[in-house]
Prior knowledge:
It contains nine helices and ten strands. By secondary structure, it is of the alpha/beta class.
Amino acid sequence: MNILMLTYQGDLSGSTQSMIFLSEGLARRGHRIFFGCREESKIYKALKGGPVKVVPMRFARFGGEAVEKIAHLCREEQIQIVNAHSSQDRYAALKAKLLHGLKAKVVFTRRQMPDSSRLSGLLSTLGADRVIAVSNAVAEALIRRWVSASKIEVIYNGTPPEKYKAVEQGQVEASRKKLHLEPGIPVIGCIARKKRQDVLLEACPYLRSDAVVLLVGLEETAEWERLIQRIKPRQRIIILPPQERVLHF
């Protein structure tokens, strides 16, 4: 099949990794995969030179210049599916479909709990051929925002097993030494951007005191320091900023 992926985001995040795994995996299976994204984004640089053809695109709140590029690609490359992964590219895909009469099926992928209005959900119902939710909870939240249940498919994020072969034990041990984590010390870890790590910290008084809580990927350390001062956990808390390579953690 000929598939066009879209995202206006594509920087350091789990969703970026998921989009890379998906598009490269489909390409290795023999599909022709195109990916429209910002030229300066992480995902553009990661995919460039590989089996996926990356196409520089600029998105705006209601489509931007990407609309014309999407329509052109669909015509020239006989695109059969347009899969939009973020809000601005969803609007661009819908606008291209309405203004240019795209024959391609338009699919939205929703990875996060939606915080958009019901009007956005109604647009998804009217404009998208399918909406992919990465969990049942996301699917249920979309239905509450007027996305038709008949259009939703739940497909969990995949991860290629071969990526774990790249973990270097030396890097693991170097990080353990740098963080002063002796073998045998229990570590409670969370590797993510801000995703309710405060709940984990609030639970610290109920957890074993000899554990270490390791939070990797947080930008705003001052906010977390204030929370830690209020809770006064018995455990040692380690907070690290976003990392380029996190598997060894």
